[in-house]
Amino acid sequence: MKWRRSMKVLKKYLSVYGLMWKQVTDYRFEFVAELVCTLLPVFALYFLWDSVFSIEGSIKGMSFNEMILYIILARFVAMVITPDFIFEIMDDIQSGEIQHFICKPINYIHYSFVKYLASKSEGIIFCTVLYSVLLGMLFGGESYWQSPMQILLFFIEVFVAMVFYFQMAMVIGLCSFWVYEISSWYYTLTFAIEFLAGGLFPLTLLPDQVRGVCKYLPFQYMIYYPAQTLLMDINRDELVLYFFVLTGWIVVFALLLKILWRNGIKHYELIGG
Is the pLDDT of residue 171 over 90? Predict the structure, then answer.
């Protein structure tokens, strides 16, 4: 009986995924235009570091090619994992659309995650092709990663980063139960992640004391660590630390989301939502 109920729920989520995928493909021109725009920071950072390396031959042991390769990989990861659904959550809560999910046997958080995955699926395909072409143009046939296992680990780490970024964005979105405007919180979060996760430069450029603190925060495992997985061999100790730190934060945020949702619904019903 339970498995039949689970299959019904799974079919509902798959239908949500299919509808969202269709929506993304229907607006393909806008999607491709947005994707191409993501290359602008890559070129901006390229010329910035070109100017820096024209003065310094290397920076903390990194050559110009290694820096640019890192920037391309970091921007790829940032493009793939950054959520764009947070304002939909705010609108759902403030417009009353959230009421439908209180009555229906479908979890709103799970529903939002499936939509997020669907909206990013085509992006992953296009980003992989686009950034591979860019790497080929800049570096020719030169290969910087050594094994298929590195590529597999890279995409696993990107998926885990997507899960955690979704959780953080969802926490801010659910705050709309109590706060009318959350856009400033979201933009602060994205800026903090760009900086602390290594979206703009390798974290090896930070002072050792700051890096020591970052090791136990989740941010570096979202962009910097996946990029480094492709650029260098990751030893077993680092993999274990990555697993425990990021998994621990995911569990914490899963509990936080559960608490926020339960109390948010109570508050919503209390004020007559």
Answer: yes
Degrees, nearest 5: CA angle 11-17-23: 140
Q: What is the pLDDT of residue 213?
A: 79
* Token couple for 147: 């094994």
- The whole-angstrom separation of Cα 14 and Cα 225 is 31
65 vs 23, residue with greater confidence: 65
**Rounded to 5 degrees, what angle do the CA atoms 44, 218, 226 make?**
55
A 10 A CB-CB count for 68 gives 21
SS3 content of the chain, % helix, strand, coil (to 5): 80, 0, 20
d(CA 196, CA 199): 8
81-87-92-94 Cα dihedral, nearest 10 degrees? 150
3-state secondary structure of 28: helix
**What tokens appear for 101 in the block?**
């999910």
Give the Cα separation of 237 and 251 in Å (integer): 21
Enumerate the domain spans of the chain.
2-270
Structure tokens at 227: 């990029």
Three-class SS of residue 59?
A: strand
Number of alpha carbons in the 13 Å side-chain half-sphere of residue 163:
16
Q: Check if the beta carbon of residue 91 is closer than 8 Å to that of residue 182.
A: no
Q: What is the pLDDT of residues 212-269, one digit of tens each?
A: 777 778 888 888 888 888 877 667 777 778 888 888 999 999 999 999 998 988 887 7
**pLDDT at position 33:** 67
| Portion of the chain with pLDDT greater than 70, in percent | 77
